Amino acid sequence: MKLEIRFIDDAENIYQGEVVLEKLGTKSKVTVARKALAPARAPKIDFNAPMRFFMKTHARSLKGPEKFTLLLAYLAKGKTGNATVPVKSVEDAWSKMVGLMGGAYNRAYSNRAKDNGWADSPKKGVYVLLPRWSEILN
Hints:
By secondary structure, this protein is an alpha+beta fold. The chain has two domains: 2-41, no CATH class; 51-137, Arc Repressor Mutant, subunit A. The chain is 30% helix and 20% strand. It is built from five helices and six strands, in the order βββααβαααββ. It has a three-stranded antiparallel sheet with strand order 1-2-3, with no helix packed on it. A three-stranded antiparallel sheet has the order 4-6-5. A hairpin with a 4-residue loop joins β1 (2-8) and β2. α1 (51-58) packs antiparallel against α2 (64-75), α2 crosses α3 and α2 (64-75) crosses α5 (108-115). It is elongated, with a radius of gyration of 20 Å.
């Protein structure tokens, strides 16, 4: 039996490797195939990809506030701080992907994203992406 292990450290490096396991019997030996773990980087994010493909690729295991943040990042093309995104743009984009997003848009998602330091709303009707947004990809 093969076991594949994937590990992500604090610096966002990804390590992966395989181990071969054998069933233990009364007279069998345990052998482990050792393979050096090679560091790999997380996949690059392509903000020029079509929106549905982008969200399907990166949002599969995310929860509502994280999906909101990822969609905001897509609409802001990953630019943090100054790039404002209208609330209406987020709501419209979400409504085009309700099935893919796991349900209708809920404004509580933006509040939770703000609570986590991933997004902000400097004035009514707009959102900005904050530098910590990439935490959602870990």
